[in-house]
Amino acid sequence: MMERSLKLLFLSGFFWILVAIPQLSAQKFGYIDSEFLLNKHPDYKLIQDELAALSEEWKKEAQKLEQEIKEMYSSLKAEEVLLTEEMYQEKLAAIKDREKQAVAFNNRVFGLNGQYYQKQQELMQPLQSKIFDAIDKVCKRFNLAVLFDKASGPLMIYTDPRHDYSEFVLEQLGIDN
Question: According to the UniProt entry, where is the signal peptide (predicted)?
Fold first, then answer.
């Protein structure tokens, strides 16, 4: 009885191994380089240029605020001997208020989830969707189970160029390399 149970257990285990091995070997893996894809896409350069111009405009505005604060401090220092304590404190409070406004501006524009980040997301989203759709089509065309992104971090220590599907994604996007 015990011997029969062991044989049955062995045969069922063997059966599951035979069923699983073809499925495991059928899994295809590949990778892409999203940085390479973005740099090859003509829209990416336009987005980068627009973001750079916007960033430059906001930086000038921030520098203007900083310069205004410096001038306010200089003016206060020059007038210091002529001002009463109350007048001095009022001007100092105005400067501190302007500093708070400058910090608020920088946080609102360049901070975490600031206007710059939101604009970047807004501009990049359509391009990322196009690339993702092309990746999806390439994965389905080549029956890929998993596709890694070489540019997304230190996960990939070695990559065999045979498994790089970046060129196929560019082809799917209609971009000549």
Answer: none
* Rounded alpha-carbon distances, angstroms, from residue 119 to 104, 113, 133, 162: 18, 10, 22, 37
Q: Are 164 and 148 in contact (CB under 8 A)?
A: no
**Mean pLDDT per 10-residue run, the chain (177 residues)?**
46 45 65 91 95 96 96 94 93 96 96 94 94 90 86 68 86 85
CA distance 121 to 124: 5
Beta carbons within 10 angstroms of residue 30's beta carbon: 21
Query: Which residue blocks in the chain are alpha helix, DSSP H?
Result: 2-26, 34-40, 42-79, 85-110, 115-141, 166-173
Instruction: Quote the number of domains for the chain.
Output: 1
* Residue 141 burial (10 A CB sphere; 0-12, 13-18, 19+): exposed
With respect to residue 150, please indicate whether it lies within any of the assigned structural domains.
yes
pTM of the model: 0.69
Q: Would you say residue 125 lies in a domain?
A: yes
Q: Which domain holds residue 54?
A: 25-173
3-state secondary structure at position 164: strand
The predicted structure's pLDDT at residue 12: 47
Looking at the domain assignment, is residue 53 inside a domain?
yes
